[in-house]
Amino acid sequence: MVELREQDESTMGLSFAGDVYNSAVYMKRCFPQLSVSMVTAIGRDRLSDKMLNRFKSESLETEFVFRHPSKVPGIYFIETDESGERRFTYWRNDSAARKLVDFLSAEVIEQLTVADTFFFSGIPLAIFEQGAHTKFWQSLERLKAAGVKVVFDPNYRAQLWTSKEEAIRQFDKALRLSDIALPGVEDLTVLYGIQSAQDAVGFCQQYELEEVVVKNGPHSVFTLVGNELLSHTITPVTKVVDTTSAGDAFNGVYLGARLSGRGIGESVQLAAKAAGTVIQHPGAIAPMAAFKQTMSEAGI
Ligand code: AMP
């Protein structure tokens, strides 16, 4: 999406963000040897050109970034009130991304089968148009059958869904098809009434997941891999500026670390370091130099 941020009465800062994009950016910044492709739909307008250029400047592959002939990207505007509370206003009901499934032809899906991993979240599931989900699930089944690992973060945004029941239905399907789940406790609390990281792990156990990673803010991270349940300690950040995309940064760096052969404990610590760094900067995408400096000190 296009991100607009008020700088002063008459000036807006322009940026680009979106949960899967944020994860892709942080994965690539930490693990440049990995090939990271965006799969999305944008328009043919000038802002879409800028968005595409930004993907490229973050060294993301753009072969699967489709250009819709008439739609344009979604936009959101962030304001911060006097008490520092953030407010978001969205214009996304008619975005190009809602049409992504139209571009997922059998040929495109075949091309995607060469990937090791396909990562998606609850947000695309919320914005796909009525009727698009069936084709999306069929595409995912094809990828899975070809050996692509499917990874899902059940990111829940209530205002994007027609009902909670519909979100639960689609998330159930997603978790059934996934190999790895990366839920945040808060999302599961709102949807299923789950209150703790342990209960979140228990919830995930009903699915055939080979790896479960539960993010619990500054408190802890729980992992369940095979039968091994581990609790990982997180060092809380005292000066939090903006928590936008903490979970996304965590996802991208965790998956990048795992794909690069790192163990569970080390991958969690690198991911937590990345998330802890991102929340000390405003906006979804932290400045490249500051982010890379901190991560290189952490051993990347
Ligand atoms: P959340 O989506 O709130 O669970 O946060 C995602 C990840 O960001 C967590 O798993 C932590 O690694 C990190 N994180 C969130 N809040 C903090 C904080 N206050 N201090 C340090 N790390 C944090």
UniProtKB/TrEMBL annotation:
Domain Carbohydrate kinase PfkB: 9-288
Keywords from the named record: Kinase, Transferase
GO molecular-function terms, A-Z: kinase activity
Highest taxon of source: Bacteria
InterPro entries: PfkB_Carbo_kinase, PfkB_dom, Ribokinase-like
UniProt family annotation: Belongs to the carbohydrate kinase PfkB family.
The protein's name in its UniProt record: Sugar kinase
